[in-house]
Amino acid sequence: MKNITKKYTNGEITIVWNPAQCTHSTLCWKGLGEVFDPRKHPWITPDKASTEKIIEQIKKCPSGALSYFHNSEGENNS
Fold first, then answer.
1. By three-state DSSP, how is residue 65 classified?
2. What pTM value is reported for the model?
3. In the chain, what are the domain boundaries?
């Protein structure tokens, strides 16, 4: 599998998803289904919840496939 990275932003933060690293634990969509919904395309819609809730859920990702950065700081500063 290629090492593809996908990014989704709500204007404040950008969610970074690395599908090759994902272990499909389902914690993201079971914990915050309004943002993470694998039945939809795109499956990540960051405008559906607060930035704080999104960050809290991303920190629970056991594989590290989900990460984020604050847009004001840039990707390399997070």
1. coil
2. 0.89
3. 20-73
